[in-house]
Amino acid sequence: MYVSFACRLALAAVMALAAVAKLRSPGVFAASLEGFDFIPARLRRPLAALVPATELLIALLLALPATVTAGFVLAALFCCGLTAVPILVLARGKKVKCACFGAGEVPMGGWHVARNSVLLAAAGLGAFVALRLGDGVPARAPGIVLAVVAAGVLTTLTVFVDDIAALFESPALAGNPGR
């Protein structure tokens, strides 16, 4: 149950932060969708509103005890799409900036696939545990603290994946050989 609780907290936080970033600068997110040539142009504007609305819905479902399992299931379905997007971008050889958490300047890459796959795994694991053991809040303080810390680490790594990826990128690959 502690694993499910950690997944629940992390997913709720990530989805809420992503939604707030998109809603703070809706034009930035909408403009980023123009780079996705596999999304029909007529669907991009509705998608720019639908994505943050879905993220907020997932966060809300995960926050309410009666709807946690539904939140995990919706998060898993949503994360399937989120994982497919950078895979399609990479397969097509496109350079599309990731505006998942605001005005990102980093083009989508393998780190984005990994990030979204981890979120998908957290949603799947959380749903599995919630369906098997229930979706209540665990009762022992040490386990709760550990779940909160784990969720905080996962949330931080997820939100700052572009910055973390930059630490591992060589200056030559970044197009700045003089760095």
From TrEMBL:
Q: How does it sit in the membrane?
A: Multi-pass membrane protein
Keywords in alphabetical order: Membrane, Signal, Transmembrane, Transmembrane helix
Q: What is its main location?
A: membrane
Compartment list: Membrane
Q: Which Pfam family would be a valid example here? A: MauE
| UniProt protein name | Methylamine utilisation protein MauE domain-containing protein
From the record, give the transmembrane residue ranges: 46-64, 71-91, 111-131, 143-161
Question: Which is one Gene Ontology cellular component term of this protein?
Answer: membrane
Query: Which InterPro entries does the entry link to?
Result: Methylamine_util_MauE
**What are the GO BP annotations of this UniProt entry?**
methylamine metabolic process
Domain Methylamine utilisation protein MauE: from-to ranges: 2-128
What is the source species?
Answer: Streptomyces bingchenggensis (strain BCW-1)
The signal peptide, as residue positions, is 1-18
